[in-house]
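Sequence in, structure out. Go.
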Amino acid sequence: MSYRVAIIEFINESNTFTLNRTGIEDFHASHYFKGEEIPHNFEGTGSEVGGAIEIAREKGWTPVYIVAAHAEPNGIIREEARAEITQECLYRLRESGPFDGIFVALHGAMVTETDEDGDCQFLREVRSVVGDDIPVAITLDLHANVFDDLAALVQISISFRTYPHVDMREVGVRACVLLHDAMAGEIVPKLAIARPPMLLGCDDGRTTDNGPMCRLLERADAEAAAPGILNVSVNAGFTDADVWAAGPSVVVTYDSAVAQTEVAERVGERLCAAIWSYRHEWAQPVPLVECIAALKDADPADGIVVVADFSDNPGSGAYSDCTALIAAMLQAKLSNAAAGALLDPEAVAEIAATGVGDDITVTIGGRKDPTVGGGPLTVSGRVMAISDGRFVFEGPMFTGLPGTCGRSVCLRVDGIDIMIVSERMQMLDKNIFRAVGIEPTEKAILAVKSMQHFKGAFGPIAARMIVMDAGGLSSPDLARRSYVHVRRPVYPLDLK
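Output:
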């Protein structure tokens, strides 16, 4: 039997502390595909939808491609953007139904102007068209903020298990295998959701340093070996969103024909107790002064040093225009270095109006909120490259997908090549630097705007990696933020 399965993606991680908002132009800047544009762009890629396409072919499904919309992490989604994407999706669902199952790739930390749980808001709209009886399988980022309503809207929920997220395709595959079994009547899946009283936990989900998250995933695997437990997902949560469910959670997908609800709930409770036990174990970024001292002492002969500005990570919705790290590197007279990607469309336009090889004095960065992470920085340098900012992800994240930083330039200031872009992009792939002619393997120092994802691409070429805090919007110092909507009491705001 060939099952008709709708395949959908609607992804955004929404920072509620930024002055920015996410509009429809931000989805177009990343990707917004419809219908058959989806397999054309996603087939064979290291993405959740790529995994779904793979299973659709393997299982003989009739896939119906609806919408694939993704915007880089940013502020709350504007209502007109949410409505446009949702209505396009609902229209295509109505025109293409009926379906035997639905696959949806979500993030899990989407906030809209009309709902602090934008993911469930979207799923309710989908259910209004397809009904309550057919199985829905979703994938989530491990930084999802999971609300209780999710259990009434979907039957299968599988989260990433890696940070950097190098298992997107595998997660899509796993979710769709369970969806196939549900459509075939071999399982009757349901969800059980649990959360500890924590805003911050799981070492933010890091899996590269063999820390708490690795131990938690081992426990989740042991729990998933019990009869009827189909999957146990551990989510670290997203602290840059002030919403009720912000923080760690556990989502248990279980076969209700085999395991009772109470059994699945106890699995979640045991994992939450384990998360609580690790609450004081968290890898803190180093201060800017300490980072610069380490860079000045580094011997280029020892290999590449990669510095990540945790606090200005566009991947968590930070502005990506903070200048404190670049200013400190210039003051320290560091050489053979590259930094990126600094967001400043105005500076890009001014620089691009000259020409490659020209010298220019220009003010860069610090435009959105000069009070965080360094204000505008005036520099003099030589224009090394002007490009359209387009590239293809080399991997291991988003492997094979197209990407763009918008119009971009490389400005060489003293010994530092600064990549300045028109569209926000976390530096998680070497090809991003290459979009403006910077070859990262030839530099002694690489300064990137990222928290953790940079390790996937840059870890293999780095002799040393330094994660630092330059005081940007996403600084891990929670005292910089005022939480109003998160449930209380919660660690570390109230509990110790």
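Check: Residues 216 and 274 are 7 Å apart (CA to CA). The mean pLDDT is 96.
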